[in-house]
Amino acid sequence: MAVQILMPALSPTMTDGKLVRWLKKEGDAVSPGDVIAEIETDKATMEVEAVDDGVIGKILVPEGTENVTVNTPIAILTEEGETVPETAASATPAEPAKSGPAKVAPEATTAPAVPEKSVSESEKDWGETEEVTVREALRDAMALEMRRDQDVFLLGEEVAQYQGAYKISQGLLDEFGEKRVLDMPITEHGFTGMAVGAALTGLKPIVEFMTMNFSMQAIDHIINSAAKTLYMSGGQMGCPIVFRGPNGPAARVGAQHSQCYGSWYAHVPGLKVVAPWSAADAKGLLRAAIRDPNPVIFLENEILYGQKFSCPVDDDFILPIGKAKIERQGEDVTLVGFSISVGTALAAADLLAEEGINAEVINLRSLRPLDIETIVGSVKKTSRLVTVEEGWPFAGIGAEIVMQVIEHAFDWLDAPPVRVAGIDVPMPFAANLEKLALPQPDWVVNAVRKLV
Amino acid sequence: MNDGASVTDKGRNDPGLSTAELEHAFHDMLLIRRFEEKAGQLYGMGLIGGFCHLYIGQEAVVVGVQLALKQGDKIITSYRDHGQMLAAGMDPRGVMAELTGRATGYSHGKGGSMHMFSREKNFYGGHGIVGAQVALGIGLAFANKYRGTDEVSIAYFGEGASNQGQVYESFNLAALHKLPCVFVIENNRYGMGTSVERASASKELWRNGEPWGIPGKQIDGMDVSAVNTATKEAVAYCRAGKGPYLLEMSTYRYRGHSMSDPAKYRARTEVDEIRQKRDPIDHVRNELLAAGIEEEKLKKIETDVKAVVADASQFAETSPEPDPSELYTDVLVEA
């Protein structure tokens, strides 16, 4: 049967081209792969190859023709001994291929609806508590999950024999052995890729970065390999993995070791991003992160590691990812923070209380998914919003929260929301300058004073 | 000292593939070639958009490697991945339908040419960032070892990727932890438009694992038997728990890097000469004829392959596009 050879598109943008010359003439036999013609595209001259066996029955577009539209029949390929049917021999463009996505009106222009819900949905009571440090809480969470599931293992720099650069993994090597607690060479890109590869098979690695700053060496695997594979595979291949480590400014460690990655990772669909403040947050959320079938970024804070909080002792204690916690009830203003900034906000609330202002303090716990319901519920009560974070203000978490509150509760606001954030400079080293760069409780107090 | 100290003799003295295996190889290589030619055609018709990296010329590599593997062994590669998928036994319909972005594609149209996966066939993608699949590949090997199986992982990458830093991090990690990973460099001589001579100070890529004690061999990647013999040896080494192994397959891609590559960096005579003298499919065809297989039998295989490709193409052209609701699914696993 005669088939038409069509003018090919050799780049995504090509609409037409010049048929420079024919390398075969009518009557020539061709096989797949034979170069039959040269065409000039918008980029360069390229070759057209035959894709079927046959004989060039008729050339429809003579060489030298310019502006030949893509998909125009340029020749007729016949089988040996066959004549060219009359109907096939016209050089009009074939029906363009339908390959664009179906036209649907984008829904993303309107904000997703926030269900009306009471703010005061209290957290489950886990009973008896004890005072533990965030450091111990993190270690206990990993140990509990490693006992529970053989597929969970920990890898990172100095996590095994050294017992953790910040002593988070203390005792884990002794209990779980070197098969499940693995020291890595200083090669974040390589070992993160390795861990992601293992997770694609269903294992559940915990990758400890000595600090999240070093995760930038591995950010391609975190985003391109871990976060996107589920989608790219049409839901076939998930990546159950936790990336954890201290995030944000520590103390006097300079610009390259003092940065918050909250907004970096929260930007990415396919990731969950968690940022605990208290020991209970650390324990409950890390257990949830390890059990989560998705890649989870777990942002710790070095300054908080040694701080003690009361934490439930119940062996089943776990917290849901995506649910914020109201740490302090108030009616006059909503303060929203995460990680160490929750402490800053609470300190500010104490100062404000002395002035007779009752601030509500929300501990986000999770940056993605963001519990906008709780924030909006609170703003509808207080009508005023201040966000607090140590990261930079530009395109930060505060910016996102403020935008979402405007989308969902604009009419409830009595004053423009305010962002309190780290100063927009690389972190300086000098003690006085470093202090000037980071949000202090009185910054929050001053921000609130402008609103009430 | 590792046994990569000398270039292999191409495995010609090895008993190699049986006639039945050679027939199988001929079939699979021809399937890849015809499939890729059809993909190129569909691209020209506007049915495939974006990037499309064809495997034509390199067929002996994946087919020779695949014939050395057993059930459970894992494969991972770059964006030039159609050959690996077909060799691994993935359905040509599902692959072609993914190329055309249809709901019936392996990734429901959400991956495209560069991003397909199959748990069933142990194919772990389809990765678009040059070199990333190597670190992921040692992760697959890590999982094999962690689970206590004797399965191996094959991490394919090009000679262009072989200069990436994470490849060397992966060599170190794999050697350090004795991970059962065969690194297969498909040296097709050009990383996009840059020849290997202009990109790599190391001229003997098969020796690139030497600092880590990783044995390496250079193989004629246009000879499916030679590829198979070398891979069997590498795989046996990995299964025995000795650590990773490196194979450099000397091969050639006939087509451009992707569809919109004018190929000005090489002379047409270079392509023609390799096509005429070293074509991997001609090679296996001649081996089969020399072994006494009748021409008619090969013709039958050709006809069968053509029908399979025509069917895949028809399927890919007529399948529906993904439902708009697919836009929002598979971002996260709902717990």
UniProtKB/TrEMBL annotation, chain A:
Keywords noted in UniProt: Lipoyl, Oxidoreductase, Pyruvate, Thiamine pyrophosphate
PROSITE patterns, sorted: BIOTINYL_LIPOYL, LIPOYL
Enzyme Commission number(s) from the entry: 1.2.4.1
Keyword Metal-binding: no
PANTHER family assigned to the protein according to its UniProt record, in alphabetical order: DEHYDROGENASE RELATED (PTHR11624), PYRUVATE DEHYDROGENASE E1 COMPONENT SUBUNIT BETA, MITOCHONDRIAL (PTHR11624:SF96)
Subunit structure comment from the entry: Heterodimer of an alpha and a beta chain.
Protein name: Pyruvate dehydrogenase E1 component subunit beta
Organism annotation: Acetobacter fallax
Automatic annotation (TrEMBL), chain B:
Taxonomic lineage of the native organism: Bacteria, Pseudomonadati, Pseudomonadota, Alphaproteobacteria, Acetobacterales
Catalytic activity line of the entry: N(6)-[(R)-lipoyl]-L-lysyl-[protein] + pyruvate + H(+) = N(6)-[(R)-S(8)-acetyldihydrolipoyl]-L-lysyl-[protein] + CO2
Necessary cofactors: thiamine diphosphate
Encoding gene per record: pdhA
UniProt cross-references to InterPro entries, sorted A to Z: DH_E1, PDH_E1_Alpha_Subunit, Pyrv_DH_E1_asu_subgrp-y, THDP-binding
Entry-linked CDD domains: TPP_E1_PDC_ADC_BCADC (cd02000)
Residues of the Dehydrogenase E1 component domain: 28-324
Function: The pyruvate dehydrogenase complex catalyzes the overall conversion of pyruvate to acetyl-CoA and CO(2). It contains multiple copies of three enzymatic components: pyruvate dehydrogenase (E1), dihydrolipoamide acetyltransferase (E2) and lipoamide dehydrogenase (E3).
Protein name, UniProt field: Pyruvate dehydrogenase E1 component subunit alpha
Residue ranges, annotated region (Disordered): 313-335
Subunit structure, interactors included: Heterodimer of an alpha and a beta chain.
EC number: 1.2.4.1
